[in-house]
Every structure is written in structure tokens, then in C-alpha cells.
From TrEMBL:
InterPro entries, per the entry: Isoprenoid_synthase_dom_sf, Polyprenyl_synt, Polyprenyl_synt_CS
Organism: Streptomyces xanthii
GO molecular function, one term: metal ion binding
Keywords, ordered alphabetically: Magnesium, Metal-binding, Transferase
One Gene Ontology biological process: isoprenoid biosynthetic process
Protein name according to UniProt: Polyprenyl synthetase family protein
Organism placement in taxonomy: Bacteria, Bacillati, Actinomycetota, Actinomycetes, Kitasatosporales
């Protein structure tokens, strides 16, 4: 099987995840992405904390631990709360509609609640013991609390929007629920693919579009919807977010195999340990050639071995080397760049201030060139 054509891939150097992409606009170079992310976090966090405080004990403290506001003993903490890309996009999208950034805050909070609902459940389903350099909720508080708190966050997301009691809030809620269902579909696909010997690149992209693209699409448009944007504008911003999500996930897939644990907060070769059919793996298996065939034989044998505890670091490193030799790493890096370009093209149909467009472009660059 031949892989979908990617134009003239730039070689990926050892230790590098995705080579830098050129900025879509010169203006984007002047954007302080750190400040943009911090603005979204600063605007959303107080409202997010207020929503979490509604939960019945002990779910309120379990959720606070997950968000990094307290440690496992209940003491205040300044733990890593994540990159805050989604809140940044939500408040920025309000500006794309000509509204104040604050208009997008309920949307930012709702998207963060859904995103963290998925993280709580994903960590349990995947058996991940670490997230953001700390033990995951199920590891500290048990599987039952991880499930309950995840469910509670999902319900809160809809409450936060519907309490606005506006027509636009109803439109925003509809988009959020559609994205949430797609996210769940993507997780179901991801789990089912772990038990299949072969998955096509197209299937993998569909799964990642559901699992990651749908919610980033919602984040990129929900503030605009709350600000009164028409459906054509919201749809264009969703397209930007969807393809940005595919770029984001492609980079995550690279980090899931070759990422530095000190940066990612996860184990070495984490996706290989979980037998994930991520893009580099699927692309390598579909590439043909000796390395691809050897990789297929090894992974087929791995599928019959239920105990990965017997595997050494060298075993996982050998699998990663075959994936790279077969072209899976380079193809995935190029796919991240391609999706980045498509995302930026989607902005061309939206009338917005040049400064807002530059911030969307800068966030897209940040997503593709990162180490965690």
C-alpha cells in the first residue's frame, strides 16, 4: 500500500520532533504566544474553579487535584495545568467575531471541562499512571473517582453554557455536544485499533480527527458563536481548528514515541507500550519495504504477547528504529506541516482584524513546533 502523497518532506533530525514551519504571516512572528496562552488561562481559570466547586465532595477535591490546583494531600499546588491552547483559541475566536475576549470565556471553560473529562477517562482506559509529571487521578484516588469526576465535568460543561440563557449559547451548546460525541467516537476507534493488526492511514486520520480535531474545532469557533457570528464564520473557524487538531495529534504521536519524558511527563516509548496504532506506526506499516515488513512481523507477534512487562528499553527502541527506517516518523512530521497549512488556509474566508489573524497563525505555529 502506498502512503498518501506528501510533498518533498524535510528530513527529521535525530532528537527533533517536527522541523519548524514557516510562519503564515510576518505579523505572526511578533505575537507573544506565551502571553496569548496565559491570557486564556487567566480569563478561564476563575470561572473553571467556580464550576468545579459546585461538585459534591470528594469529587470537588479530586477534580482540583486533576487540574493541578492541589496536591494529593489536598495542599495548594501550582501544578502544570496543561498548555491552555483551547482556552486561548476560544477567547481569540470571540475577537474574530468582533466581540471582547471575555465573551468567549464560558466557551473556553466548557471546552476545558469536556477536554478534561476525556483525559480522566482516557488515563484510566489506557492505564497511564502519569500526566503532567504527576500521578493520574485513577492512580491516586481510584478508578471509580476518575469515572465519576469525568462524568461530572462533562455535565458541568453544558451547564456553564446553558446558564447564559441566550440563543447564541444554545448554538454553542449544540456545537459542543456534537464535538463531544465525535471525541467519544474517536476514543472508541482508538481502543478498537489497538486490537487490530493493520489500520489504514485514512482510518487513523479519521480517528484522530474525531479524538482531537473535533474539540479543537469547537474551541476555535465557540467564542465567535457566543459573540453572535453567523454559521459561515463559525464553520470556517471550525475548519481551522479541525486541521489544527490533526496537526496537534500528529505531533503528539511523534512525542508519544520519541518525546523526552522530562518534557512530556510520560514514560519513554509510551505509545509503543500501549500498542497504539498511531500515525507513525500506521504510516510505517503501510509504506512497504524490508523495514515495514519486519515491523509488521514484530507487531503481529507482540499482539499475541499479553505481558509487555518482559520488554526491555532496547526492545522498544528497536521497534521505534524500524518505524523511523520505514519512513513513519518523517511522514508524520510532514503530515503535521500539511495540516498546519490547511488550517491557515481556512482563515482566508473570515473577515477579522489582522492582529487577530496573526494570533491564530502564531497559535498554529506553536502547536506544530513543540516538545510536549
Amino acid at each position: 500500500m502506498e502512503l498518501p502523497t506528501a510533498q518533498a518532506p524535510t528530513p527529521v533530525q535525530q532528537g527533533e520532533t517536527v522541523p519548524p514551519v514557516p510562519s503564515a504571516e510576518a505579523a505572526a512572528d511578533a505575537v507573544d504566544v506565551t502571553a496569548l496562552l496565559e491570557r486564556g488561562r487567566t480569563l478561564a481559570t476563575p470561572v473553571l474553579k467556580a464550576a468545579v466547586e459546585r461538585l459534591a465532595p470528594p469529587m470537588d477535591t479530586v477534580a482540583a487535584y486533576h487540574f493541578g490546583w492541589i496536591d494529593a494531600a489536598g495542599n495548594p499546588s501550582d501544578g502544570d495545568g496543561g498548555k491552555a491552547v483551547r482556552p486561548a483559541l476560544a477567547v481569540l475566536s470571540a475577537q474574530a467575531a468582533g466581540a471582547a475576549p471575555e465573551v468567549g470565556v464560558p466557551g473556553a471553560v466548557a471546552v476545558e471541562l469536556v477536554h478534561n473529562f476525556s483525559l480522566l477517562h482516557d488515563d484510566l482506559m489506557d492505564g497511564d499512571e502519569q500526566r503532567r509529571h504527576r500521578d493520574t487521578v485513577w492512580k491516586v484516588h481510584g478508578p471509580a473517582q476518575a469515572i465519576l469526576v469525568g462524568d461530572a465535568l462533562f455535565a458541568l460543561a453544558n451547564e456553564v453554557l446553558l446558564e447564559l440563557e441566550t440563543v447564541d449559547a444554545g448554538r454553542a451548546t449544540r456545537r459542543l455536544t456534537t464535538a463531544s460525541r465525535a471525541l467519544i467516537d474517536g476514543q472508541a476507534q482508538d481502543i478498537s485499533y489497538e486490537h487490530r493488526e493493520r489500520v489504514t492511514v485514512e482510518e487513523c486520520l479519521e480517528m484522530e480527527g474525531n479524538k482531537t480535531g473535533a474539540l479543537l474545532a469547537c474551541a476555535s469557533s465557540i467564542g465567535a458563536v457566543l459573540g453572535g457570528a453567523d454559521d459561515a464564520t463559525a464553520d470556517a473557524l471550525e475548519k481551522y481548528g479541525y486541521h489544527l487538531g490533526l496537526a496537534f495529534q500528529a505531533v503528539d504521536d511523534l512525542l508519544g514515541i520519541w518525546g523526552d519524558p522530562e518534557s512530556t511527563g510520560k514514560q519513554t516509548w509510551s505509545d509503543l507500550r500501549q500498542r497504539k496504532k498511531s500515525l507513525p506506526v500506521v504510516a510505517a506499516l503501510g509504506a512497504g519495504g524490508p523495514a515495514s515488513e519486519r515491523l509488521g512481523e514484530i507487531l503481529a507477534a507482540d499482539a499475541k504477547n499479553v505481558d509487555f512487562d518482559t520488554f526491555t528499553e532496547e526492545d522498544f527502541a528497536a521497534r521505534a528504529a524500524l518505524i523511523e527506517e520505514a519512513g513513519g516518523r518523517e511522514w508524520t512530521a510532514e503530515e503535521a506541516r500539511r495540516q498546519h497549512a490547511v488550517a491557515l488556509e481556512a482563515l482566508d474566508t473570515v473577515q477579522m482584524p489582522a492582529s487577530v489573524r496573526a494570533q491564530f497563525a502564531a497559535l498554529a505555529d506553536f502547536v506544530v513546533v513543540r516538545k510536549r
